[in-house]
Amino acid sequence: MTTLIDRRSPSRGPSRRNILGMIGATGALMISGLAVINPREAWGLEVVALKPETMRTLIVMARDVYPHDRIADRFYAVAMKPYETDAAKDPALKALVEEGVITLDTLAKARHGVAYADLGWEDQRVAILREIEDSAFFQKVRGGLVVGLYNQEEVWPIFGYEGASAEKGGYIDRGFSDISWL
Amino acid sequence: MAAPFDLNDDSVVVIVGSGAGGGTLGTELALKGVKVVILEAGKRHNMEDFVNNEWESFAQLAWTDMRTTSGSWRVHKNFPNLPAWIVKSVGGSTVHWAGASLRFQEHEFKTRTTYGDLDGANLLDWPITLAELEPYYAKAEDRMGVTRTNGIPGLPGNNNFKVFEAGAKKIGYTEVSTGRMAINSQPRHDRGSCQQIGFCFQGCKSGAKWSTLIAEIPRGEETGNLEVRPESMVLKIEHDNSGKATGVVYVDKDGKTQRQKARIVAVAGNSIESPRLLLNSASSMFPDGLANSSGQVGRNYMRHMTGSVYGIFEKPVHMYRGTTMAGIVRDEAGFNDKRGFVGGYEMETLSLGVPFMAAFLDPGGWGRSFTSAMDGYVNTAGLWIVGEDMPQETNRVTLNTEVKDKNGMPVANVHFDDHPNDIAMRTHAYKQGAAMYDSVGAVRTLPTPPYPSTHNLGTNRMSEKPRDGVVNKHGQTHDIPNLFVSDGSQFTTGGAENPTLTIVALAIRQADFIAGEMSKNAF
Predict the structure, then answer these.
(1) pLDDT band at residue A20 using 50, 70 and 90 as cut-offs
(2) Do residues B400 and B336 touch, judged by C-beta distance below 8 A?
(3) A140 near B CB under 8 A
(4) Which of A177, A178, A180, A181 would best serve as a mutation to test chain B binding (most B beta carbons within 10 A)?
(5) Is A109 helix (H, G, I), strand (E, B) or coil?
(6) Against a cut of 0.90, is the pTM above it?
(7) B13-519, superfamily in CATH?
């Protein structure tokens, strides 16, 4: 998790009162200055090239695209962080992402009167994503996410996948044929 | 011990590609005392360099140079620049293959005769028979150490196999086993036995799996007659005024253009690169490309009728533990047109890790339907279906003159549409695969679309008559006697079987022919 700022240090973290004041429909994801923060998971992600609100929306969108209730926000944040890094070097990408998020918010406000990330139900947000799923913005985010999320070694144990095995001698003595329920 | 041959040495056999066809042919010729230079586009990796990580390994081994696609196949939509999942590395796709080693069935060499005239299918009988190939199949099986041949025991079944086997037996299949695999079940030919690592597709780190990289090429090099030049991308085959091949132009590892002279040129760059090279070698004498008087170069591209079925169960399977392709059902492999299609198919266990499962389970898919399937990963069993697809003239590798590679050569475009027979067979196979898993308690089954092609066949096919194909029964081009094709692009039709064993058998047979002709001072 080196790509995220650890907010466990008390001097850098937002005050408890501020946190309580900021919690809204987006659950634990909040904006603090130039960062998206998640006090519950004790991390923050500084955003310079993109607007912090844009990154927050991207992280919410990432979970809506690949919702896993056992996977914490920080893994979605790690998967979305490259858009911040790449947007700094690539104005076309930056425009694609910022405009894509504006579209999401415009649709959300027209349907429900609030921004995309503030919609309370996943179904409401997913309905909006279905409207834009053929767009370059959606395809870019989904295409990056399918690798950026599922290729994180830290998420593999959540799926029960054990990863590399050669250095452990393979599975010949570690359960390759241990199935017992058949 | 590599034998460096001079660029101007016109007595060498130049082979383009080092996979199942090229690596075997080069080694076999070297063992017979023939001097060989293999030009391989990819790098040379050792087995300890292989990585047990799907995307990292993909970056290390896969052919990711630009290609384009067209047609109604779903690969075009989801992976427009990755028509095939094959290898750019010394050893070619034998580094990545799963090891299934099956002989063709007798009728699969005679599909035009057996299946008749099928609308839209460009069926043709092979110019060779099973009987002619049998001695070479036997040699290939011995050389590759195929289990259940030559007294070699079968591999033990892993968890994925046990679910597959129980389901197969429950619905009445009888031909189910851990198959014939070129993976050592016991130490043989200086290679150890399978450690059930998994990651067979990522290059076997124990050396139990046969590949030309570890089991053939080093033997050839020991003779002093074989030189392998990695990172050597062949651009063009040259010929003289008599129409005889004289050598090849290639870009070496330093980016310099070189010309290697040759007595014989054999093309073994896989069914996409081999026709691309012949087409890119067009000259004033051969304006449509080399060996293309029939117009068949690049046509009849086959990729096998494929697909996967995954079954999610209530309890853990851990399908990724152990051999990736751990077993086979052969009951549907024969010809039985009562099923509503010609040809047959195999079902073979398959597993993917979490990263590739996410990429390939339902490409482009998202939302809870997708993620709930991913959440069932540890309880999932998987199988792959591989069946005979119909050759069609319009399924085709062509040059895309709009897109050039870094050497300025037009890239290959791969066009593919399923034949109605392919679709009928896939529908049948999805149903049977799901029935197997349902019978042992699957709570959900997932009919998964074909991955980018791993079995690429037919684009320089064998034919008895020059007008019907590109090469004769020895893989020798009809048009140019000292130009050969030595990979799966020779296949007249695809059969239901994984193609590697047949490619190796044909290469051993071709080596006999080439050495024999050379001794008669042909070429």
Answers:
(1) very low
(2) no
(3) no
(4) A177
(5) helix
(6) yes
(7) FAD/NAD(P)-binding domain (3.50.50.60)
